[in-house]
Amino acid sequence: MTEHQKLVTDMGQRARAAFAVLSNVTDEQKARALNAAAAKLRSDEAEILAANAADMERSRANGLSDAMLDRLMIDSERLEGIASAIEQVAALPDPVGAVIDRNERPNGLVMERVRVPLGVIGIIYESRPNVTADAAALGLRSGNAVILRGGSEAIESNRAIHKAMTDGIVSEGLPEDAIQLVQTTDRAAVGEMLKAAGLIDIIIPRGGKSLVARVQQEARVPVLAHLDGINHTYIDKTADQEKAVAIAVNAKMRRTGVCGAMETLLIDQDYPAPAALLGALLDAGCEVRGDDAVMELDSRTVSADSQDWDTEYLAPIVSVRMVGGLDDALDHIAEHSSHHTDVVVAEDEAVANRFIRSADSAIVMWNASSQFADGGEFGLGAEIGISTGRLHARGPVALEGLTTYKWVVRGTGQVRP
Amino acid sequence: MTEHQKLVTDMGQRARAAFAVLSNVTDEQKARALNAAAAKLRSDEAEILAANAADMERSRANGLSDAMLDRLMIDSERLEGIASAIEQVAALPDPVGAVIDRNERPNGLVMERVRVPLGVIGIIYESRPNVTADAAALGLRSGNAVILRGGSEAIESNRAIHKAMTDGIVSEGLPEDAIQLVQTTDRAAVGEMLKAAGLIDIIIPRGGKSLVARVQQEARVPVLAHLDGINHTYIDKTADQEKAVAIAVNAKMRRTGVCGAMETLLIDQDYPAPAALLGALLDAGCEVRGDDAVMELDSRTVSADSQDWDTEYLAPIVSVRMVGGLDDALDHIAEHSSHHTDVVVAEDEAVANRFIRSADSAIVMWNASSQFADGGEFGLGAEIGISTGRLHARGPVALEGLTTYKWVVRGTGQVRP
Fold this sequence. Notes:
The structure is a homodimer. In chain A, α10 (241-253) links the parallel β7 and β8. The model of chain A has no long low-confidence stretch (mean pLDDT 95). In chain A, α2 runs antiparallel to α5 (76-91) and α5 (76-91) runs parallel beside α6 (130-141). Chain A is of the alpha/beta class. The first copy, chain A, is 41% helix and 21% strand. At the A-B interface, α10, α14, β13 and β16 of A face α10, α14, β13 and β16 of B. β16 of chain A pairs parallel with β13 of chain B.
């Protein structure tokens, strides 16, 4: 065994033992432990800010970009945000123990499917140290043990936050090993986590495309991945023009850097007011890359090339295409969507229902902005990500997505004939 | 692209197109199509039996074992069984379209989680040709397209069954590509299926350990795997003695070759009648491999070695250990269980509930035989397997396990502030 195999094996075994302890901990105790962790984060403010200052100084000297430095930075206000986010998670209802369904058989056996935690969750993330607290809180709230592996830039901050959190949960009688932080910044440790089937039940990567791609490529452990949000809005000929403009502008321009932002606008060739729609986007400061039909409508548009239909801009740029109605729009979406969030704007309910049935995306919306693609907006509380995979959990993943179920069969001595 | 990459890519693309068509097919049409497939299997009896005879002859010449030849063989009666199993699947309620939950937000948006098919399912199996029909029926009933890859011994039988099934579904207007059979017996095609992420959504291996292990090792596509059933029965000191004997003997001896069979019996050292329990197993023809305490109880027992606690016998053999109560039993189970089915026999409900909470298995049973671990016994109808993984589906996997969900958001023009 290499040093990193040993490290991950040891952490995994301790996490499994902690997970077993958590299965006998009450909901109230988990909530109290998280509140204690939040309190400890506040009382450790001096240590955490000092650790973060060391990370910032080293990272600045290493030439980290301003954008990355901003992600890394913690001040009093951000620390308060981290602590209160933990309290919000503590206040969420615990999904564990809920009976999903129940079936009494003719032989008297009672079968129930009962929600249980997933087990040991590995979270691999980049420079934001708040993920250390967020992911630990969501994992623990749903009864899981977590193994956290953050970016090397944030190692001192992560250590300080991790210490405060474990101090907090231990003060309420929970096992310290329920929240573990990989202390080495060697990337080989990530490779070992990805291979630790049997010890780690699921890996959740939180970060940019290259991180997620590496994790998906290498992992032998199942991955709950969030890939691109190449999201479409289709404006049907029956769309209300006011709604169409409001939704298109909001879906693209409210925040251009979020995964729920629209990247491609598909306009029915029979929609009566395409120029006004494009004008509203252009007036809002959006670059419009269109096909030939679009370019004829407004001289401010530029020509889209074939790559545009597969690009997540995360910027004030939109690709726009005129389509020959619903089927043509669905064909485009089937070919180019990343299966995150696709929207139909239409007054004809039959058109909407066919779009809803046929668009094969985690989230399909009718007459609403794709920027609502967010666990909080869905009423789920905090989310750990938006899954673009099809298995286990799809779309916004909150506490329930961090659980599975077991079958509980209660009998009175039945044997099978 | 190699020949096999081309083959699998082409099949995958055709399956995805068929899947898109299926999303607009009604429940009734799917049921009619399956009934038509069953009828066609009956009317094609001569062709199917001739194809099977060719497989049998070639396999016999190749020295296939009698047990394997028996799995391969189809006669009139078995074909009737295959056809009527399809009709039973056709009669099951369709899980697709069910609303899992619904949430109306303060802004008027209505969020629903709606069951949808998984997509394209790849099924890799061995010599039993009935799997061709079973898996296709379960996949199609839940709206999925399937790509089937059976063992080379059964290729002629599989082709004949596949032709009858596609003829049947096409006669009811369903796309032929909804059920595809890999026509080559080259194993490289399996390797390509396992790598076909984006085309195949999930791989379900049905077969022995070496097949499942290969699939799990190589797959880049998610795998719904059924591994060993190293199942435990723990007899608590509070167990009713009559129930204990009946459950232990049934769990081991009813059918020894099924994955729900008990492999290890754990007896509380304070259980008052261990000798009677062992005697009942021995009298039923079971070999008992015990620890020292067990061997003292009956001279017919033999000594267990350390491998016995991790062995799935699938035979009239049981390993038996005396344990120091519930916690000791749970420790043994945590170390040796394959997380399939574990059972507690106890009259004390507190003991049972702690076992149910702490035993981390897909199925936990109280006072019932582990041989009930079967989708039919759970009231699920036909099953595609029993999942020992934790994600997506756990325990018996029937139609619902072949679905996922999408989020459907209905608005009236809402934009996000």
